[in-house]
Amino acid sequence: MGGLTFMYNDKMCVGIIKDELMCRFDPALHETAISKTGCRTMDFTKRPMSGYVMIDESGMKTQKDFEYWISLALDFNKKAKSSRKRK
Q1: Would you list the domain boundaries of the chain?
Q2: Buried (b) or exposed (e) across 26-42, using 16+ Cβ within 10 A?
Q3: Are 1 and 7 in contact, with CB atoms under 8 Å apart?
Q4: What is the pLDDT of residue 45?
Q5: How far is CA 49 from CA 7, 17, 40, 52, 61, in A?
Q6: What is the pTM of this model?
Q7: Contact call for residues 15 and 4 (beta carbons, < 8 A)
Q8: pLDDT at 1 over 60
């Protein structure tokens, strides 16, 4: 991915790419999330990915903002499928 990724329960949860926070959450919440300040769809390798967003510093100005994104990622992590482990 080109950044630092944090796994939880063997599943990608959040990460840091350059100076932005990457969050993985329920794709059903994607449209609501990208309407928030500082949030955009992750388009790593030029492919938009529903349920994956990038948040710049304007979207994390307060502790409450930051906790919102982390909570979305942790809530979805319970339902997310883990990636197959490479051999």
Answers
A1: 4-77
A2: eeeebeebeeeebbeeb
A3: no
A4: 79
A5: 18, 15, 10, 6, 25
A6: 0.86
A7: yes
A8: no
Just give the CATH number of 4-77.
3.90.1150.30
- Other CB atoms within a 10 A radius of the CB of residue 14 amount to 21
Reported as a pLDDT band with limits 50, 70 and 90, residue 87 is low
The tens digit of pLDDT for each residue in 21-75 reads 999 999 999 999 999 999 999 987 788 989 999 999 999 999 999 999 999 999 9
How far is Cα 14 from Cα 33, in angstroms, rounded to an integer? 15
How many CB atoms neighbour CB 72 within 10 A? 20
Q: Which two tokens stand for residue 53?
A: 């967003």
**Which whole-number Å values give the CA distances from 47 to 14, 29, 43, 44, 75, in the listed order?**
18, 18, 5, 6, 24
